[in-house]
Amino acid sequence: MGETGPASDDGSMQATTVRQFILRYRSRESELAMSVAPLAWITGLSAVVAGLSLVATLAGIVSGFGQHHHTFLTLRGETVTIQGGGLYGNESLSGASQAIGQDIVTLAVAIPLLVIATLLVRSGSIRGLVLRAGVLLYFTYTYMLLAFGGAYNQLFLVYVAIFSASLFAFVLSLLAIDPTRLRARFSGRFRRRLVGWTLVGFAALLALMWLGRILPALVAGTPPPGLESYSTLFVQAGDLGIVVPLTILSGVLLLRRQPAGFVLAGVMVVKGATFGLALVGMMVAMGALGTDVPIFEVIFFSALAIALTACAIHYVACLPRVPRQALSVEIAS
To answer: Where are the domains of the chain?
Structure first.
């Protein structure tokens, strides 16, 4: 039998130290997930959102092209071009183009991001907690607009189910994050002011853009641009009533170093980046289907997508990595 010398003792001590570090790290990071949030429910609801969104987006994309458009006279006396066929057959051509473009981005970006975030959370990643909440807000807002404002189609109940599941999963995801502990995890290179002012600036510009459409029409007593065949400006109502105030609140709280601001800012930059990419997809689809896009909106939404994506990447990069990577740094030191 071989003798156990100092080398083997050192090896055993190092292995014990490694195991203790892993347990301490996982315990410390798991404190961010508060017991009031049933994590299994969040995972289950996220799976429902991902599965139903896969069905809805594929149906919209597959049936979206090659349709015969026709015109429609609205109650306000405007002639509007209607998509004419497919899942979005009763939408205006502009509305159908935007829905198809967003379906493509939801399929290619949002659904994979939700799956990745869920897996990261299960591995104990702080980054996953914020990513999951942000992308769930994207699904909540997207399918809220489809369920409440889009033209009725065969997937109406699917839209309602996705909206409901993502809404409750989002609320539970927020409850699963301790704002004070999250703030303490940020690295010193986090550009808090830059992210905060980016959020405030984006919200202000978005409000000015929509009000620039609505107020002149109200004064003139004419239908505003974009109303088309719809009963109201449901997108602008959602943006002005939810997105603008929440984004400003997130930016202001972050600038004031409030713990809630660190959570909300992360959620809004992830949601904003995803939705910004969806807006670019909408404009591309509108061009492909022959719908004119104002050049100002092309510039604004493209800049929005770039700015918020950069902020989201920076935000996530300033949070700790998964335990295995943190462990390698600890041993090397």
So the answer is: 38-321
